[in-house]
Every structure is written in structure tokens, then in C-alpha cells.
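hey can u run this one w/ 6-O-phosphono-beta-D-fructofuranose bound, need the C-alpha cells asap thx
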Amino acid sequence: MRGAGAAFFVFLWFKTSTYFFVMSEIKCIGILTSGGDAPGMNAAIRAVTRSAIFSGFKVMGIYRGYKGLITDEIVEFSTANVSNIIQRGGTILKTARCKEFQTPEGRQLAYDTLRSHGIDALVVIGGDGSLTGARIFANEFNFPIIGLPGTIDNDLYGTDHTIGYDTALNTIMECVDKIRDTATSHERLFFVEVMGRDAGFLALNGAIAAGAEAAIIPEISTQTDQLAELIQNGFRKSKNSSIVLVAESPVTGGAMGIAKRVEEEYPAYDVRVSILGHLQRGGSPTACDRILASRMGAAAIDALLDDQRNVMIGIKNDEIVYVPFSKAIKNDKPINQELLNTLRRLSI
Ligand code: F6P
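ok here u go:
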């Protein structure tokens, strides 16, 4: 009986102290998704909303990213607003790339809207550009923001993976498996372009997962002519068909740029191009992305309770980490040399 009484007292103390903290500091959290959508964003919205409500916060859903802060598209979220969304691709909050938020006037409007709704902290789910906006806004108005890395590109420093990356990788693998059927039947050389902006994670790991012959990635193409190297190394000697994954890049011109060069410089090859495009951003998130998004969403609320400000939630070696915005967006995430070597060795 005494044990149960003490436990009840501890429970009450815990509840009231959490409540007191919430009441005295942050009461209402806004959540938005921004930039390119990524599978798992909905799982993150769900996790942020439910963890916040669990801890006694009020939650406001902000539609269309930073644009919704300027045009005042904000609704209160209950746990029911995020029911039945964990399995859905895209983002129920919609997303946008907002030019106005890049101006001081636009950000002032956004701040005024936040204050008018009593929102005193933000969780921003997005990629590089979105977290850059978050950093500027947080510094300008001394406003608490927690970022979640939501992009298929996996190009944010300080986290092993970003939300959406695993699903996009699986989509790429399935597409390349299909392309391989026709590549083999026609004995062709295929250049398959994948997304990644200036990062080669999707191309490199997609190539390993699909058993492709090579990957041409922006991190390397500034130093070496990867195409010339491939051809000179006789990468097709023992094969009739080959698949090369090419990351989109202004340096190489992407798959079209590479294919044009092959037609001009190595006309013996029967070349075809497939650009996977936006289908890489859609679809139901994989278990890995749902779990990643759920953990990161819950960690965003822990971070606010922990008095953390202006950090991105990352997961490194399976542990939650807080990465200052300045580090997450400014540092280039390096490509693992071991992956490049593995691909090379397995493509003989
Ligand atoms: O940032 C994610 C990303 O998928 C990039 O890889 C790509 O360059 C970009 O978005 C394309 O975005 P959109 O066509 O939607 O502007």
C-alpha cells in the first residue's frame, strides 16, 4: 500500500512538474512541412502531434510550409487529425517552396501570424533549404525551432539517414530491376537518372541495391571524368547489358548529358536513358522510414522539453542526436569511400 501511495505521489509530481514546465515556457507548438515532399513526412507529423499532446502542449498544423505562415492557413490539431496517415506518402499539411519567406518583410508577416495564434515554438520538417529558412527565422526573432530532416536526398549532415531516403531507395531499386529486364533482352547500356540534387547517396546506394554496374555521382565528377574512367576500365567487357545510375547534376548534365557524350565519343554502344523523376518522391513509406520519422517526431518534443533550441534531430548509430542548424546545413555530408569500393568490386 505504502509503495503504491509513493508511486502515485511520484506520478502526480511528474505530471504537475511537466505541466508546470509546459505552462511556464512553451504552450503551443506549430508544425509544418516545407520544400520537396518525402515519404514518412506524415508519420513525422503524427509523431510530433501525438507526443506534443501527450506532454500537455497545444498543437497547430500549418498548411503549405512557410507560405501558410504568411497567408495564415493554420488549424488546431487533435490526435484525430493525424489518425490513419502513418502509411500515406506525401504530406497532409501540403508543402511549398516560399520565395516571400526569404525576405525580411515576409518573415515579419510569418512571425506576426505565429504570435496571433499564440504559437511559441515550431517544428519544421524539410530539407536543406527549409532548415536554412528555419535558422534565419529563429535567429531573427529569437524563436524556438526544432528541425526534422525530411528529404529523399539524405544530404543533411549529422544524421545517418533522412526521412524519405529509404523509401526512395527502395523505389529506385524496384524501377532498376524492371529496367534490367529490357536492358538484358536488348543488350543495351542504360543510364538511369535519380534525384539527389548535389548529392550521390541515392545513386550510389541505389546502384549497390540494384546490382548496377556503376554510379556517376556529383561528389566525384568534379574531381574525375567518371565516364571516361568507366569506359577505359572496360566495364562492359564480360557483359552485354549494363546499367549505370546517374545522379542529377549540373556538372555532368545528368543521364542525358552522359548519354550524349557516349553517343558522340563511344558510338559502338546502344544507349538508352531513363529519368525516374518525381516517382521517387511518392509512395507509402517503408518500415524504416516510418520508424525513423516516429522516433524523430517524438524526439522533437523531448528536445523542446529539454530546452533545446534551433537544432535538427538526427539519428547517429541508432542514437538520437541534436545537430545545430549551422552544422546540419553548412557541412557537406561525405560519401563513404567503402561504398564506392564495394560497387566497383561487385560490378566485374
Ligand atoms: O530536394 C529533394 C529533391 O527531390 C531533389 O533531389 C530534386 O532536385 C528536387 O527535389 C526537385 O524538386 P521539385 O521538382 O519539386 O522542385
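The radius of gyration is 23 Å. anyway lmk if its weird
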